[in-house]
Amino acid sequence: MKKIITLALTLSLSQIAMAAECPDLLKYAKRKLNSQEVVNMCEEYKGKTILFVNTASKCGFTPQFEGLEKLYGEYKEQGLVVLGFPSNDFNQEFGDEGKTAELCELTYGVKFPMFETISVKGEDADPLYAKLAKAAGAEPKWNFYKYLVDKNGDVVDSYNSFTKPNDEDLVSDIKAALAL
Questions:
Q1: 59 counts as catalytic
Q2: Which of 9, 27, 68, 80 has a CA 20 to 30 Å removed from the CA of 171?
Q3: Residue 147 main-chain phi, psi, to 5 deg
Q4: Residue spans of the chain under pLDDT 70
């Protein structure tokens, strides 16, 4: 019995220590798009450079999926991860996550992680996006708004929807964040 209590206490203390080491922006669990699988953001992405992007399937910026996938493919071995979060805040996302997943995978060949549809602005903003907006000093103005977060969990900068994934400044900032 004493061993069980000691083991339970040790596990609890290690979980507390891990939570304390996790950057605030990653202290969330998010469900993968069109799936029941839930990802512990800290366990999966701690120590990575992250580009958060709110996406939409029926938007003029939707072709950016191709560039985001190319960016992810080019820099993932160096520690970059692109995380897509569909949002219907601007009334341009399917109500069916299956259709969203199909568009991402079949039309644009998206392999970077895509998550459940969330709200990204205003009072209804998902807590993750509320923290991103607060840290960057700006909430998404439209679909395909981007936040770059360094390996320490600090927001480097935010980029408007017109900033394409191959934009010189964005790529330069990604390279600098990867070099930390």
A1: yes
A2: 27
A3: -125, 125
A4: 1-20
